[in-house]
Amino acid sequence: MSSVQPYTYADNTEKPYISHPLLPFLQSQSQTTLSRLYLRPSSCLSIFRLLAPLERQIIMNLLWLESAIQTSTMSAWVIRESRKLYDDALLTLGNLHILPTSTVKLALNATFKSSFRQAITGGGSSGSFGVPAEKDDKRQPIDLEALDGFALEKWETILHYMVSSGSGQAPTIPSQGVLFLLQRSGLMTSIHNAPLQITSAGFQFLLHSPHDQLWDLLLQYLLLAEERQMDLVDILGFIFMLSTMELSREYSTENLGDTQKAMLEDLRDYGLIWQRRPTSRRFSPTRLATTLTSSSPPLPTSTGTSSGPQEGFIILETNYRVYAYTDNPLQTAVLNLFVSLKYRFPNLVVGSITRDSVKKALMNGISADQIISYLITHAHPQMRKNNPLLPVTVQDQIRLWELERNRLKSREGYLYTAFASQADYEFVLNYAKELDVVVWENSPKRCFFGSLEGHANIKGFIERRTMGASS
Fold first, then answer.
1. How far is CA 264 from CA 108, 149, 159, 189, in A?
2. Do the beta carbons of residue 2 and residue 383 sit within 8 Å?
3. DSSP alpha helices (H): ranges in 355-413?
């Protein structure tokens, strides 16, 4: 008998492309909204960066063509094995209204093509990439190290507040705007006007990379645009503009719209921009902002000062012992969510993954796969020489502890029993199976359990059969 491998273990092979979380949101927007957005060269460039490699290649193949080409011409370049990948790419570009829905010819959206050409070749005076502020001889611009420190402080204030909620600690409280966003996004909640407490979604949020965390909050910010009477296109345009700006350079606020000027306070609270004063007419984008649509790390890489290290810091042994080479309080606090910590040294934290520590994490909404994913993402370079990367025994045990918690599943429904004969039982059972509402059956005892949704149909069927037999 061939053995069955229930899980795929972590190794060092290249991971498949994962769609950016902003793309589904953009695809849900109307053609009018996207056409307004495509008037801005910086937006076109940023969206291009978010696309999959094949989607980018299709755009580049069509960008400099002055007329549409036959779909059959483009299809001839696609090998049979990649046909589905190509069709999916066309579908995504069509949903973004970058390509038309025509099945005969292919051509880029004229507005997108014109703006994207301008983004690549330069020129124009739209200020889409920001207007650099004039040099101020009285004040020196903020240096890069101080800018990184500001972004890190703002961002880690948010994360520290989340991870410390309910622990008896007194962390720095973020601004009201940040607290409102955390609550509306479901990451924190308040019961009976009590202080905000982290939710299961919030615990999962803490295990994500800083880049994913930032986009999670920005997507919620975009969803609140209509409620706050803000122009969605202006919000998206400003976010995309920031992602294409030069790090540590000062830009003027004079060319910003009313919505974008109102965003400055919120973006300061998130650590995306720095201003000398709230009323200042100039601002500098931080590394958090300039890396929004790129693959560069969103936080500084100095050891012990980043909440999202670019080099891993965790070593996991087959005896479940964890060694974390970090002195960052936030990293230690996140580890404490699923690791039983034993010792703390100036640059090293030692603990163990235990049944109780994993059960505590599961109760807080963290799944076994998320724990394993976090350990993989932050594995020490020495660990990356192993294949599989994490010990298989540890991966299996974490999943088994999760299965212990999920041994029983409740489901509402009805038990049908006391049939007069085996023929009656099988007749009703077959009808229920046709409806696909049978959850459990026991033929010797002439009973079965049906789902709640199918009860009305089964009840009616039995009543009609009973009436027919009596007449």
1. 34, 19, 21, 26
2. no
3. 355-363, 368-377, 392-405
SS3 71: helix
Look-up of token digits 């299709």: 58
Q: List 188's β-bridge partners, or say none.
A: 198
Tokens of 80: 């049979």
126, 82, 72: which is closest to 104 by C-alpha? 72
CA-based radius of gyration for the chain: 28
Q: Helices 422-434 & 455-470, crossing angle to 10 degrees?
A: 140
The CB density around residue 348, as the number of other CB atoms within 10 Å, is 13
d(CA 194, CA 171): 16
In this prediction, residue 308 carries a pLDDT of: 43
CB atoms within 10 A of CB 401: 20
Q: What is the mean pLDDT of each run of 10 residues along the chain (471 residues)?
A: 42 61 94 95 95 94 91 86 90 93 86 94 78 82 90 91 73 89 90 80 84 93 91 95 92 90 93 92 93 81 43 91 92 90 94 94 84 91 91 94 82 89 91 91 92 90 80 59
**CA quadruple 211, 216, 221, 223: dihedral, nearest 10:** 140
**Which of helix, strand or coil describes residue 55?**
helix
Contacts of 250 (CB under 8 A, 6+ apart): 132, 133, 136, 141, 282, 283, 284
Which residue has tokens 């570009």?
93
Contacts of 293 (CB under 8 A, 6+ apart): 46, 47, 49, 50, 240, 243, 244
pLDDT score at 409: 74
Structure tokens at 65: 């063509």
Q: CA–CA distance from 186 to each of 149, 214, 217, 309, 379 (Å)?
A: 28, 15, 10, 26, 29
Distance (Å, whole) CA 259 – CA 434: 56
Helix (H, G, I), strand (E, B) or coil at 141: coil
